[in-house]
Amino acid sequence: MFNCHENPIMPPPRGAVAVSFINELTICEKSAVSFLRYWGSTKTQPAAIGELIWQLGKEEGQSGIQCLDQISIILKEKSRRPFLYHDVICDCVGAHEMCFAKLISLSAKSQKTDAMIFANHLVKPQALEEIYNLAQKFSHILNLMIRPDNLFERNSNLANKENLDRQTIDFAE
After folding, report:
1. Is the Cβ–Cβ distance between 35 and 55 less than 8 Å?
2. CA-CA distance, 73 to 62, in Å (whole number)?
3. For the segment 25-58, what is each residue's pLDDT rounded down to a tens digit?
4. The pTM is what?
């Protein structure tokens, strides 16, 4: 995990180069990056598990856990280069994270051709179809979590009116 705040004068590794800030992403992209970051550390992984189960219930939550775990395994074992991501507290978004965020958001809209372009930056050709299918499944899980009615029902911080007014949920209708 890369934390650009620890040594700001050292250039980050290629995949961790900041290309955006977390507050510039859509709610779908933010959620995807956040879950991936939390999943990447044994210290923060229980928080991701808890959030998935709390937001979705036991059955759907378990499906989300399995999906996120499979995505992480693919990014670790079948990636073109080591997948790099920023620390959970970092407000920067790295190049690899941005590709992942775009893969998830485009998969949600069933824009397979465009999603595969981003997937191609992350994984080897033999894993493209697998990562796309998992991205579609994970985007569906995120969609269930960030629906405005679910957020209000759960009293989520994401649901405050100010955030919903500024964000557009970019999932397929």
Report:
1. no
2. 16
3. 999 899 999 999 999 888 889 988 988 888 888 8
4. 0.78
